[in-house]
Design goal:
heterodimer; A: 179 residues; alpha/beta; Rossmann fold; 3-stranded antiparallel sheet; 4 helices; 26% helix; 30% strand; globular; B: alpha/beta; 4-stranded parallel sheet; 11 helices; 38% helix
Chain lengths: 179, 309
């Protein structure tokens, strides 16, 4: 199994700052905006961005939630492994809000399709945007594209893009792994 | 990734602790789902479930049906009183006829102990036992333990007494298995005539004095006297039963602690439990009902995930 570094710790940090600034450009003081991390892996990115917006850019009133899409996925009973549910924590109503979905890697787009359905249980948002750290372009199964994008990657099907976070896996880095 | 060790839920006896943990963790997520403004998820939209009730039920039947609908399954209902069972059809024939209509899962309540096990050996569908005679009622025991876990933070090491008609109760047997599996200490309390002869072999302690039992326990699960299953008189009168084994406010106030009161329903107010106790803050009877839907969603979801396409 060989692996290549796509982004190291410093590059991840620069990319996160850029994404945070792009969010501020479009969402001003975030009064009508909510950030939604897509479980399980989008949670870390969403928390990191929320923290950065609050501490480094002094944005107040950041509303952050995490959405689990397990029960809305379209591959139930279709894979070898059972789907395991994660926690949803959305303590606010998204009715008429600007929602930003946050996920680490955008691949087929099926998770985001599930998230678009799942979020409807919490109201009708004004609009929904998508932020991803890594966009595996040319591998989409659905017409879904990110509004904010850390890095585009050309990877083939048998390769895996792995995002690691300091608080969880000991380092901030993105790897391209040959499985 | 974890999955259940079984393809059917026939009884708690067939489960292990990992299964129970997985069901509870999944139920936690479904409990969040059923408290959303929109309470439905699309997971089981290609699954059809038949609810076969050969014995009366309101709560369990409604709870299963709601759980199935919240998961977007297609549901068909069958009750024996309005069916060809009355014309002499056998259980296997009835079920196979229903399965020919492409049904994936069967939820069954039946007056005969072991009916679910029997069916699971003869038909190609996932079977969920919703109560088989005086044998097991696994989803009730799961939701009872889940409610204790929610109220007291865990089940392990807790003292739980099951009070009342143990002899005729499927809830008692499933609860004993489930609680012991999770490391609780279990006691049964009731008149000797309503305690099974070999109950001690299950590893439970036996007490015939309700006051002593309540002083010992953290949780008291009050059972109904199942008059419909009694062919002889097991105690002199309902009044005397209530005096000996009914829980009331004075009894609870005399204890030095607040114990949790549970009841699987239906309640006979004024018999095994007085109204002021049933409606008190110590009682978690309605929480049990709410948790029942989440637990049944978890069980059905986890079993359905094992049905191959």
């Amino acid at each position: 199994m060989s692996q290549k570094v796509l982004l190291n710790s410093k590059e991840v940090n620069i990319t996160l700052h850029r994404l945070a600034c792009q969010l501020i450009e479009n969402h001003d003081d975030f009064t009508n905006t909510v950030l939604i991390g897509i479980q399980p892996r989008g949670k870390f990115l969403a928390e990191r961005l929320a923290q950065m917006l609050t501490k480094a850019y002094n944005v107040k009133n950041i509303q952050l939630g995490h959405l689990d899409i397990t029960f809305f996925r379209d591959d139930f009973r279709r894979g070898d492994k059972p789907l395991e549910a994660n926690t949803t924590t959305i303590d606010f109503i998204v009715e008429d809000k600007n929602v930003v979905f946050i996920d680490d890697v955008l691949y087929t787009g099926r998770s985001i399709r599930a998230a678009l359905t799942a979020i409807q249980s919490f109201g009708r948002p004004q609009n929904i945007e998508l932020l991803t750290l890594i966009d595996r372009r040319f591998s989409r199964h659905l017409p879904i594209q990110p509004n904010y994008n850390g890095r585009q990657v050309d990877a083939i099907d048998y390769q895996k893009v792995k995002v690691k976070w300091l608080e969880n896996e000991g380092e901030d880095a993105v790897y391209l792994i040959d499985k | 990734m974890s999955e259940l060790s079984v393809n059917h839920l026939l009884g708690i006896k067939y489960l292990n602790t990992k299964d129970i943990d997985l069901i509870f963790e999944t139920a936690d997520q479904f409990k969040e789902v059923i408290n959303r403004p929109i309470k439905k998820v699309p997971s089981l939209r290609d699954i059809t479930i038949a609810n076969l009730f050969f014995e009366n039920s309101t709560r369990t039947k409604l709870s299963f049906e709601l759980a199935e609908k919240r998961l977007s399954a297609d549901v068909i209902n069958f009750s024996a009183s309005q069916s060809s069972v009355k014309k002499g059809e056998t259980l296997i024939d009835t079920v196979n006829n229903i399965l020919s209509m492409k049904v994936d899962m069967v939820v069954m309540r039946h007056p005969n102990p072991g009916a679910g096990v029997f069916l699971s050996k003869h038909v190609k569908a996932s079977i969920v036992n919703a109560g088989d005679g005086a044998h097991e009622h696994p989803t009730q025991a799961l939701l009872d333990s889940y409610s204790i876990r929610e109220k007291l933070g865990g089940v392990k090491g807790k003292n739980v007494v099951i009070v009342g008609d143990i002899l005729h109760s499927r809830v008692a047997l499933s609860n004993i298995y489930a609680l012991q599996l999770q490391g609780a200490n279990v006691m049964v309390c009731g008149p000797k005539t309503l305690l099974p002869k070999y109950i001690k072999e299950l590893g439970v302690s036996v007490e015939t004095n309700l006051k002593k039992a309540l002083e010992w326990c953290d949780v008291a699960n009050m059972l109904r006297v199942q008059n419909e299953r009694m062919d002889i008189s097991y105690f002199p009168s309902t009044r005397e039963y209530t005096q000996q084994y009914g829980v009331n406010k004075e009894l609870l106030d005399a204890l030095k602690k607040d114990i949790v009161i549970m009841h699987p329903g239906p309640i006979n107010r004024g018999v095994e439990i007085t109204s002021d106790v049933a409606d008190s803050k110590q009682a978690i009877i309605l929480n049990q009902v709410e948790n029942g839907v989440a637990i049944r969603m978890a069980v059905i979801y986890l079993l359905a995930s094992k049905i191959k396409q």
